[in-house]
Structure formats: C-alpha cells, structure tokens
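Why does residue order matter? Because the sequence determines the fold. Keep that principle in mind as you read this record.
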Amino acid sequence: MLATVRWGAVMVGMGAGLLSLAAVSVLAWLVLSASGADADAATGGAITVGTVAGFGVAGAVAGRRTRTRMTFHGALAAMLVAVVVTVVSVRGGSPAPTVAVLLLAGFAIGIGGSAAALLGRRARRPARESRRGGSRG
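Structure:
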C-alpha cells in the first residue's frame, strides 16, 4: 500500500494543513481574546479550532492533488499533521497521554479522510466516442 502513495500530494497537503493550523489558531486566538475570554481558555480554544481546520485542509489538499485513493491520501496527510502536533506538544512539556494521542490520531484520520472524500478531485468522465466510432483524444 505504501508503494502507491503519492508522497508529493501528501507532503503538500501536510504543509498546507500546518500553515492553515497556524493561521486559524492565531485568528481564533485574536477573536477569543478580544471577546474577553480567559487567556488559557482562549489559547486552548484557538489551538483546538486551528488543529481541526489543519486536519481538514491537509486532507482536502492531499485529496485534490492525487488521482487515486483520495480518502487514503487525505487521511495520511492529516495523520502527519497530527504527528507534528504531538511532537511539538511533547517537546513543549505536555505529558501527551497515550489515550489523548490515539484520540488525536483518530480525529485526524476521520477529518482528513472525510475532507478528501468531499473536496477531492472527482473522477473524470470517460471520453465520449465520436460519430465515426473512434474515441476523442
């Protein structure tokens, strides 16, 4: 199965997911801070919203850039975003219990795969035959 992975699509999806995670997190933090939320609540809420958005964008972009197995590629790209999030949080001092990491991975697979299935490239219609009996090139 890994031999058929379009790594370029997965890496572009992962990059787009990480960029959107950062951008949405900052915007959500600004909105939540301006609304008067507690600093910890604003930070936690912003990171959560950004992570979910990052999973979706990673899956959608990876799904759009591949021609086969869009859902698989989208889930894989979102899973790699989850790996980066986990590594950054552990390096930052978070205990990252196993249950939380597995839950994050499950959300990544579900959101990324669903986004790829919904927003991925649609299969092209087969070429219509011309009146002379041949197919259009």
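The mean pLDDT is 87.
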